[in-house]
Amino acid sequence: MKRRFSVICRLSLLLTLLSALILLALMMAVDDSLKTYLRESNRADQDKLTEVARRQLEHDAQLLLRSLSDSLRVDIYNQDFSAIGDALERLGKFRNLDYIYVYDHNGSILHDGSADVPLYGEPITSHTPPQLLTGLVEGRFWSGEHLHLNSRVEASGEAFAAITAGFDFTSAFNEIKAHREDMISAEYSLFQNVRKAVLLTFMILLPICMLSAIWITRGMLKPLQVLTNRSSRYAEGERNLTFELHRPDEFGRLGTALERMRQALEESHDQVRQMAYEDTVTNLPNRRWFQNRLSEMMHRSASLDGTFAVLFIDLDHFKQVNDTAGHERGDQLLREVSKRLQTCVQANRLQRGPAAELARLGGDEFVVLLPAIQSAEDAAETARALLGSLAPPFLLYGQYFSISCSIGITLYPDDGISASEILKHADVAMYSAKQHGRNQFAFFQPQMTEEIREHLEIQQGIKEAIDKDYLYLDYQPLYSMESGQMIGAEALLRWRHPIKGLLSPARFIPIIEESDLIEDVTRWVANRAARDLKKILDLREHFSVAINISGAALHQLEMCEYICELKQHLALPDKTLSIEITETSMISHLDSCEAVLRRWKRAGIDIWIDDFGTGYSSLAYLNSLSIDGLKIDQSFVHNLIDGHSRPLIDAMIALADSLSIGTVAEGIETDRQHEELKAMGVEYGQGFGLARPMRIDALMQLLETEENVRP
Amino acid sequence: MSRLVAHRRAAILFFFVLCIVLPVNGVVLPATAGAEPLVLAQVSDRPKKDFKQLLPMARYMADRLQAYGFNGAQVQLYDSAEALIGAVRQGEVHWISETPYTSARLMQETASTPLAKKWKNGQQQYQTMIFTLKRREILSLQDLVGQRIAFEHPDSFSSYFLPRRILENAGLSLVELERPEDPVPEGQVGYLFSRNEKNNALWVDKEIVAAGTLNNGDWLNPDRVMPEMHERFHVIHRSAFYPRAFELATPALSPEAALALREELLALSQENHAGLLARYEQTEQFSPLELQDLNFLQELTDTGGRAP
User: Which superkingdom does the taxonomy of this entry point to (chain B) (predicted)?
Assistant: First the structure.
């Protein structure tokens, strides 16, 4: 950006320019006035001078002539030509006379001023201008610069002669003209001097004006400069200042307003900072704060060559608390947990000195930053203390909650050199701790990354798969051993990954089951299967579709309700929708799943035990939970011919018979197996030997074919 | 040579005159009557000019006559012969320079003594001329009857006393006119005073009067009679020649001083005193009185103002 002049500089220049313009205008006005004055005064002077001179000359001439008349009265009376002539001659010596005549009452010239009086006796009128009144009267007449005068000569008050004269005042008027020119030239030089003086004054005043302008502007705008300076400093981050100027004028008010703005900004800033960096549930620092802190730490440790540890804490099975006790209690538990962790961290800090810091990353994730540790053992010790702090159960609303946590530990700089890396590796380590049975801590190991990565990929990918319809269902038909007729099908979840192709259910389903995502996946499967079932029911009245419900989803009442509502919404007849639960998952959630199973049962949904015979089940529940049937695990069917599983299968059939519940043999691959099992009294069978899992279209086609074949 | 003879003769005559005159008046003045200025007087109608002309000579003589009790010079000018006579009678004047007629009256009326003839304006003697305009065709004195003639002023010898006597001797009757317009009584000649020589000539030239009178000196002076006028004028009468002017001693001047003054005046010469003489009314020189001069003066007074 081009450097601009400061406001003071510009204002000063502007004021100076303005002053200069005013001075210039003033100077021009003075100059013009002087010129006009010079011109006018010259003309007026000249006119006045001429007028005065004319009057004076006239007066003098009259006086002269009158006095001549008086002095020559006797001589004229006596016709004393010599005396008259001498007088006229004397007069002519110091007056420029055009003529001078003495004439009598007849108008005859008595004397013409010359020695021999040649005009004696001639009529006066032929020698004077016609405009001049002649006769024995007073008269005067100007012709240019010549004055013609007529003056009476009286004796005893009566005129008996007159003197008439023509005065030539050319030289007098020339002198006036010359004088005027002198005056003009003198005044012009005076005018030039005045002009010079004005110019000089202008030149003196201009810098004075400039300095005054600078001085005044600087004085006036000083507070503005102060405010600008403070604003700049404030903008650069200086906080220890005030805009208050303690002045009564506009600047003072501006300062006060700025100060109010600053205070409001500070408050707002504090609020934002609080909102931005503090977790609202626990009032602990939040993820953003932690990331900043971590970056800061790394920056500091890098320069100090220091070591620090990050402990990534994830509460075990916290989701279940939320699901069963509600979010309010979940939040309360989080607050209690955070208090214990904080107390523990602070106690730890007191022992060690350097400040350990606790933050909540979100959900049930916490993190502890241990600055300046001596060795990994320091971190392990803290982790143990943290685990121990959560060991006593929490009493909330009269109810005890037991919660543990898994901790992943990373050390800087060994386990990463960036903040995100450190945090991610801590997460991985935590995950590993969870994998190894929870309620423990684990240091990050590089090989952890790979196994965890797969988990993470699947957990992250499944959402995308749901959204983008990468999931689909295969149906494995279920046949009646007796009639050989297809009576139902088991819905099997398939995931066609856009890059990795078809993923094995055995691989991704356990990983999904570990996460909260199992809920979404279950909903998707239930929804899709129910709708497919609706279509199938249009084709065949008696048909059932079974969906597998993971143990993780089993205790969720929402899920239970969802399936019930789905059945009702699609108006599926009773006993068309079945739910298969593995024996293992049912046993591990036996208490919590009981209500769910009963709810489904009431809704007309059949419940089958999947993979029966592989778990360590108490047979008691088979009776109490109103199970509709057992699905004999395919391992038993596989060992039927060449193995020793026939007695077990017999026992299972006998058990089912005794409980009046159905049996399904899974994994029938050969006709022989089929025949044997039929003979043993298994009601239904499924397996590659009967039909491979197929898409809904293929199933429908198969059903149609079967319908056509049936008589 | 003849001049020296004349000188001596005049001295004898002067002495003679003194011897006669002084006892008659019975006035004997002391030779030195204390320190006083020498007073020179004249009748003048141009006092300023005449004062300047007379003063140097008065001073010169006062200086020369210190021995007679004079410690300075004064010039007194009077506007008429009567005034001058009055002053002389009061003893206010020591010395007078005048034309013949006034000189004669002074001798007659104040017992003043003529000392020497003064060649005033370079003239030892002069004559009076009576002139007219040629075109008026006035050819003789007799033609002036019923006409007006201009004299200079009543104290003028050459332009009043003398011409008047000439006209009267020619049998003409003169009457003074108040104004040029005044009518001339039947059979008489009207006269007017022109006041000066110049007017005299101009009046004739402008036909205010028929004739004028001027002495030959003025006639030839171009300032008074312009040369062109000569052609227009015609002189109808010329008088005899008379002495131009006289220096007189009043009774206030002691006979010794008068004698000394006479000697001093006669001693002035063009060789030694040209400047002084020139300033003294253009005087050429002073010459001693002759008997005929005394007779002439006597004759003037005898007629009692009547023209001889």
Answer: Bacteria
The tens digit of pLDDT for each residue in A10-54 reads 888 888 888 888 888 888 888 888 888 888 877 887 788 888 888
Do B198 and A79 count as a contact with CB atoms less than 8 A apart?
Answer: no
B-chain residues near A102 (CB < 8 A) = none
Nearest to A579 by CA among A618, A610, A552, A543: A610
Report in angstroms the alpha-carbon separations of A698 from A473, A516, B229.
12, 33, 180
Residue-wise pLDDT for A293-312, tens only, equals: 888 888 877 766 678 899 99
User: pLDDT band at residue A696, thresholds of 50, 70 and 90?
Assistant: very high
- In chain B, the residue whose alpha carbon lies closest to the alpha carbon of A109 is B206
Distance from CA of B104 to the nearest CA of A (A): 29
Out of A291-300, A688-697, B224-233, B257-266, which region has the weakest mean confidence (pLDDT)?
A291-300
A12 vs A529: which has the higher pLDDT: A529
How far apart (Å, rounded) are the C-alpha atoms in residues A292 and A84?
A: 134
> Any residues with CB less than 8 A from the CB of A41 and at least 6 apart, and which?
A187
Q: How many domains does chain A have?
A: 4
| B33 and B102 part of one domain | yes
Q: What are phi and psi of B99, to 5 degrees?
A: -80, 170
- Model ipTM value: 0.72
In chain B, residues with a C-beta closer than 8 Å to the C-beta of A85 are 198
User: pLDDT tens digits, residue range B96-136?
Assistant: 999 998 999 999 899 999 999 999 888 888 899 999 999 98
- The percentage of chain B sitting over the pLDDT mark of 70, rounded to a whole number, equals 87
Region B280-294: what's the mean pLDDT? Answer: 91
| Angle ∠(A530,A532,A535) on CA atoms, nearest 5 | 110
Residues B163 and B104 in one domain: no
User: What does the pLDDT read at residue A339?
Assistant: 93
Interface test with A, best of B199, B230, B232 (most A CBs within 10 A): B199
- Determine the Cα–Cα distance for residues B77 and B42; give it in Å rounded to an integer: 5
Instruction: Establish if B308 belongs to a structural domain.
Output: no
User: Residue A168 — φ and ψ, nearest 5°?
Assistant: -100, 105
Segments in A436-578 forming alpha helices (H):
448-468, 505-514, 517-539, 551-554, 557-569
Instruction: List CB contacts of B19: < 8 A, sequence separation 6 or more.
Output: none
Query: Does residue A590 sit at the B interface (CB-CB below 8 Å)?
Result: no
Residue span of the structural domain in which B150 resides: 128-238
Query: In angstroms, rounded to a whole number, what is the distance separating the alpha carbons of residues A235 and A233?
Result: 5
Same domain, B102 and B6: yes
Confidence bin at B307 (pLDDT 50/70/90): very low
So what's the pLDDT on residue A598? 86
CB B195 within 8 A of CB A83: yes
Domain of residue A308 covers 287-446
Read off the pLDDT of residues A530-540 as tens digits, 9 standing for 90 and up.
Answer: 999 999 998 88
Do B239 and B162 meet the contact criterion of CB atoms below 8 Å apart?
yes
Query: What is the CATH number for B228?
Result: 3.40.190.10
Query: How far apart are alpha carbons A162 and A153 in whole angstroms?
Result: 5
- What domain count does chain B have? 2
Domain end, chosen from A413, A446, A479, is at A446
Q: Tokens standing for A522?
A: 């279950």
Q: Among residues B171, B99, B96, B85, which one has the least CA distance to residue B128? A: B99
Return the ∠ at Cα B86 (arms to B80 and B87), rounded to 5°: 95
What string of DSSP letters covers B164-230?
HHHHHHTT--EEE-SSTTSPPPTTSEEEEE-SSHHHHHHHHHTTSSSEEEEEHHHHH-TTTS-HHHH
The rounded distance, in Å, linking the Cα atoms of A463 and A468 is 8
Chain B residues whose CB is inside 8 A of the A121 CB are 206
Q: Which residues contact A124 (CB under 8 A, 6 or more apart)?
A: A101, A103, A107, A108, A109, A134, A162, A164
